[in-house]
C-alpha cells in the first residue's frame, strides 16, 4: 500500500514560528513513514519541512517544482519539474492526502489553501493568524492545530478516515 | 494593439451584491472596448460578468474552462478548454492585465487572488468583506473599489501604467 | 452559437510550402467566420496562419502562448498566457474543434498531432511527408488534405458532424 | 545527490515486444539505483516498467497520473496526481533525466517523444519500427537501442554527460 503523502505548504519567507513549525512537522511526518510533499524550493517552509524529514532515516521527500530543470532544495529526494510556474500549486494539493499550511503568510500559500479547500482535501491550518482564521472560516471547512504534534495527530485521524479504520496496523 | 484583458473572478455561488457588481462591471469593461476574461462556466460571477459584457455590441468575452469539451456559459464568445481543472486558475490570472475579484467568497476565488498577487498583477477587490480586507492586507498589495464604476476607473489607471500614458488615445 | 475554433499547428521554422499553406488556410478559415487558434508566437506556421486570417475583416485569432507576459505575434487578437511552456500544446488541441497540421516538421508539431489523436479530435495532415504519413497511419485515424482548399472543405464536413447537419445555415 | 530519474514511456496497449522490453528495462534501471518514472497507470508499458523495477529491493517508482485521486498502478511507489489529463505528458518528460520509448505505438507516446525532443532531453527509441525511425530522423536527434541492455548502457553514458565524468563513483 502506498505511503500517505502529506503536503506541507507555507511562505518562502516565513515567520520564525512558521519555519520552526515546518521543521518539526516534517520530522514528525517522516517518523510516521509518510512522504513529505512540498513545492521543492530551498526556501522557507518548503526547505524546513524537507530538512526536518531528512533527519529521519528512510524518510522520503517529494518536491513539485515550478521550473524546468533545477531549483530544488538539497533535502528533496524526488523532484518533479513541472515547468508550469505557480500553476503547479494545484498539483501539490491534488497529490497530497492531507494539506498542512504552516502559517498563511504569503500569496502562494493563500492559493494553495484555496485550491485545497476547493478540491475537498483535508486542510490543517497550523499557527494561522487570527485574521487568517476569521477569513478562512467563511471560505470553507478546515481544521486548526496549535502546534506540530497536534497537526500530526489530526493527520493520523484524517488518514484513518481516508484509508479505513484498520489502517495502518493491518 | 491588442485589446486589454480584464479578468473578473468570483464565486460560482456569490452573494447578490457580488453578482450585481459583476454584471455591472462586465458591462462597463465591455463599453470601454476591453475583453472580459472569466472562468467561463454558466455560474455566479463568471456568468454575470459575461452577461453584462454581452449587453454591449462588439464586446468580446473569453472563458478559460476547467473541462475538456464543454461546460461554457452562453455568453462566452471564445472558450479555451484547458482540461486542467482548477489549475486553470493560474492561466486566468496570467492572461489578465488586471484582475478584479467581485467578492472573495469562495475557495476558487481565494486561489485566484493569491495567484494574482503572487504574479504581481494589479488586483482590485470589489465588495470584499472586512475580514477579507484585513486578511489580504497582510498578504500583498492590492486596490480597493467601492463599486463597479470605481473599479472601472482604477482599471483605466492601471492600464495607463501598463501601456504608457498616451494609451488609449494614440 | 460560438464560432468554431480551428487549430492550425506547424513548425516555427517550416518549409516554404508549409508556410504558404498556413497563410492560405488561415485566410480560408477566417473567410468562413471560424476562429484561428495557434500557439501564438511570431514564428513560422503560427505567424502565417494568423497573418492569413487578419487579411479578412472581422476575423478573430486566438494565440495560446507558452510564456507569462508577452511573446505573442502581431496578428494575435486574443492572447492566452499559460506560463506552462510546451504543456500548453495540450490546451491548443483541446480548445480546437478541428486540428490541421501544416507539415509535420518539428517536435512540437509532432506532440500536437499525437495529443490531438489521443484526444479523439478530427486531425487533418496538410502537406505531410511520405514518412510522416507512413508513420502516423499506424498511430491513429486522421484525414489528408492535398492543399488549403481541400483542408477547408474537410473542416466544413467535420464541423457538420460535430454541430449537426443543419449547421451553419440554421 | 538526487538519484537519476529515467522516464519509460510507451503505449497502454503495446506489442508483446514493447511490453517485454519495458519490463526488462524497468528492472535494469532499478538495479542501477535510478528512479523509474512513468505515466503511472496500470496499463501496458507503464505497468511493465514499474513491475520490472519493483522486482529490485530498494527500487523507487514515480507515477505522474492524468487524474485527480486514483488510477495509479500497484507498483507505483510515489504517485503525483496532476488532474491535467494528457497535459501531464509534458511533466513526465521535464522530470526525466533521460526518456526511453519502448516502442512508438500510440498517440500519447508520440506526444511524449515530440515533447522530449522539443525540450532537448536525451531520447532513446527502443524497438521502434522502421517507419518510426524514418519519421523521427527528420524531427530531431535521438539515440537507438536494440534492446534493454543497450538502452541501460546508453542511459549510463548520458547520465555521465549530464552529471560529470566522476559520476557515480564519487
Describe this protein with a few key phrases.
homotetramer; alpha/beta; seven-stranded parallel beta sheet; 170 residues; 41% helix; 18% strand
Q: What does this 3D model show about the protein?
A:
The structure is a homotetramer of 170-residue chains. The first copy, chain A, has 170 residues and is an alpha/beta fold. Helices cover 41% and strands 18% of the residues of chain A. Chain A has 6 helices and 7 strands, in the order βαβαββαβαβαβα. Chain A has helices spanning 16-31, 44-53, 88-94, 107-118, 130-137, 148-163; strands at 5-9, 35-38, 61-65, 78-81, 98-102, 123-126, 143-145. Chain A has a 7-stranded parallel β-sheet, sandwiched between helices. The longest helix of chain A has 16 residues, at 16-31. Chain A is globular, with a radius of gyration of 14 Å. The model of chain A has no long low-confidence stretch (mean pLDDT 96). The interface between A and B is medium-sized, with 32 and 31 residues.
Strand content of chain A: 15-25%
* Shape designation of chain A: globular
Radius of gyration of chain A over all CA atoms, rounded: 14 Å
Mean pLDDT of chain A: 96
Strand order of the largest sheet of chain A: 4-3-2-1-5-6-7
**Global structural class of chain A:** alpha/beta
